[in-house]
Write a structure and sequence with these properties.
CATH topology of the largest domain in chain A: UDP N-Acetylglucosamine Acyltransferase, domain 1
Number of helices of chain A: 5
Shape of chain A: globular
Structural class of chain A: alpha/beta
Largest interface: A-B, 42 and 51 residues
Number of strands of chain A: 34
Helix content of chain A: 10-25%
CATH superfamily of the largest domain in chain A: Hexapeptide repeat proteins
Number of domains of chain A: 2
Oligomer: homotrimer
Largest sheet of chain A: 10 strands, mixed
Distance between the termini of chain A: 69 Å
């Protein structure tokens, strides 16, 4: 997310209780995860093996749990628990705003857009023109929806990222990362009934122009779906997955987080995608393989008893 | 769907911009997909390989993209884009009617039926007697529900068919087929929480008498589920599948579209049904096989290392 | 469930039309399934092979369909159809109470807890302090929620158990078991959007302290989830499963009913757990195996063609 106005690093240090190292006159313009940072952003790192990636990223202000050499022009906020300091900042800049009615007064809704009864439209939501939001849909704060979009009943846009830091020494082990990203639905998208599309942790979860999603689909935090995608019912996509344009996923396909599916890939029903795969091909299986290869394997399995017999006969 | 009153083909030709061929004095009584047509129906065809099936079907009026010989007594509506002409007709005869309250004044609700708060009941919905509709359920327009039916919270009945025509040459590739079918829930059915049952494209999606569905189940457009079916949670059924009476599907089973599962079949959890299967048997796997055969296969796989060893010694 | 006050067995016999055998002065203090019974409870049995288990259980009053020897101090309620007699009692002691508003007057809601618009809170629900209930959530009657709990939009807590008795001779074959159990959500739990957690048939479905559930998760009736569990999206858990503390389930995992997953087990995506498994290990596959063993199997399958070639060369 980007701040409404720049924030001096000295205020950040004081607010979080961190020690300032490096450029103490800097101003922060936003807050982001490491894979989304741009100049002016605050990011955080708490594992030594990721120090270098974070210090050499585009992030200008880095919350870190050890005093290390500060790269030129950057600012370190040294804090014993960078995760908590980061969460404190998110909570401050993107506080929860309780709703008092089904459609927030701060929502901006385009002409010829129809919001059916029972649909909830949160604060600061923007919906374009000629959209149809069916009953009992829930649209969390800050969601952005383009033109000619249809959202079927009981779908949820913008619930929190499923992202926790585990602290095994505590009784309650999982510490919640607060999300300050958004869900962005581009023009001409249709989303089925009973789907859930989570907001990004700091960036946006995006459903690209013209994509069509069937019912019961889950899209994890920060996933980016390209244009003209077609997903059948009960598909699940993990956080920060990148699905390029024109990908077709058949029913109940599962896709892990942090990977890329190339343009135009087709994946048969119930398959599981555990790592990045090339576009323009057809896949099947859990984990997925080239569909023809997988089909051949299934046939080979059927020939094992025949092989056994041959082997016994010698 | 059937029209409230018959529609002259000359009006249809003018409204859609089609050229009339054959019987020009005909009247249309309804509109249907090819697998559902009856005499008096309008249907459409836009692929040459399906011409014959459509021309020889029960459809009386056929929207077609080429001037061919018209079978005796029938009427052709020759149009460069039959899909669009068909969609224009559906939109005209089954227009979207915005709702203004949670329970429509045009809904007919039987005695001793209880609609819990937050449930949406659309226009022209009919619900029988002694039913219980739990909170935040969404029932789209024209849905029909019998007697003694329980619909658990946040379930959606009658969302649009997931049916698109792809036009690769366009920026927005998928053209939406408008649905004019319905969802019909017969007597004594219970549907769990968070399910979605889509309406048929032109015919009805039917849940047969006495069937029981657990939570998170997806039933695609036009599927016909028999009587006394039992589906466990997270099952997904594709469009126009026919599931005969007394079929039992365990959790997370996926069923493709356009196939038949025979009476009394039992399918174990997480299986995938890709083509029609006989009734009275037990199945397992993705794709499914006879359950015992599949179990044996799984055991044979475990013996591959033993075979390898024999082979190496051999 | 436990009754508000003790109920004489003579009233029970009269109300259900059963014949009293054994101690006729007994009082019942509750009603429970066989795996949950404690002293004072009514339970039922209608299959001869379960007679002994029920008669020797902690249940004090047993509804049974045959006059057998009554264990000392206990009471038998002999009835031709124990299931129906049991259901009649549940209906009497836990009747359906229609709701008239989104948040029941009989619900007790702690301080600093925020109920967003469109959320339904049923009768006799208790919610602790500092909770956040998002829009269009449905919380059925008698649900209990601790402190610091977050329930995301459109999730359903406390829908009925999916539990039926089949009577093949009838036209409508499945007879519904009424549920009188509850859903209990302990402190510091977060539940994602579009989940469904069913109430227990007679006992409680429990989500243990500090557990975090992603979206579209189904938890069956009477399942008991330990502390600090982490379940990814679209997981399904069958009825009465016991998931011990700190279990991690990845996306789309399915777990059968009536089994135990040991503490700290990790199960990879799309796996299926069909029977009890030990804790502290990593699993994969449908049905699950040790993850490394399963991976090796997948590799062996790829070597079948090589084996075939060797075999042919002889």
């Amino acid at each position: 997310m980007k701040f409404d106005k720049a924030v001096p690093v000295q205020w950040l240090a004081e607010f979080t209780g961190a020690t300032l190292v490096g450029n103490t006159q800097q101003e922060a313009t936003g807050i982001n995860e490491i894979h989304k940072v741009t100049a002016g952003d605050i990011s955080f790192v708490d594992f030594e093996k990721y120090y270098n990636a974070c210090l050499t990223s585009a992030a200008t202000i880095i919350i870190i749990n050890k005093q290390v050499d500060c790269p030129g022009g950057k600012t370190l906020l040294v804090h014993p628990d960078p995760f908590s300091a980061y969460v404190k900042l998110v909570k401050h800049f993107r506080p929860f705003e309780p709703a008092t009615k089904m459609v927030s007064d701060s929502a901006i809704i385009g002409e010829d857009t129809h919001i059916q009864p029972g649909a909830f439209v949160g604060n600061h939501v923007r919906i374009g023109k000629n959209c149809l939001i069916h009953p009992n849909v829930t649209i969390y704060d800050h969601t952005v929806i383009g033109d000619n979009v249809i959202i079927h009943a009981n779908t949820v846009l913008g619930a929190d990222a499923f992202y926790f830091k585990r602290r095994k020494e505590r009784e309650v082990q999982y510490d919640k990362m607060l999300s300050c990203g958004r869900v962005v639905i581009e023009d001409d998208v249709e989303i089925g009934a009973g789907c859930t599309i989570d907001k990004g942790v700091s960036g946006d979860t995006i459903i690209g122009k013209g994509s069509k999603l069937d019912n019961h689909i889950h899209i994890g935090h920060g996933a980016v779906i390209g244009k003209n995608a077609l997903f059948a019912a009960q598909v699940g996509i993990g956080g920060k997955a990148i699905i390029e344009d024109e990908v077709i996923l058949w029913g109940q396909v599962g896709v892990s987080k942090d990977l890329t599916i190339g343009k135009g890939a087709v994946i048969y029903a119930q398959s599981g995608v555990a790592s990045s795969i090339e576009g323009g091909k057809i896949y099947f299986g859990s984990p997925v393989e080239d569909a023809k290869t997988k089909m051949k394997e299934l046939n080979w399995i059927k020939r094992i008893p025949e092989m056994w017999e041959k082997l016994m006969k010698g």
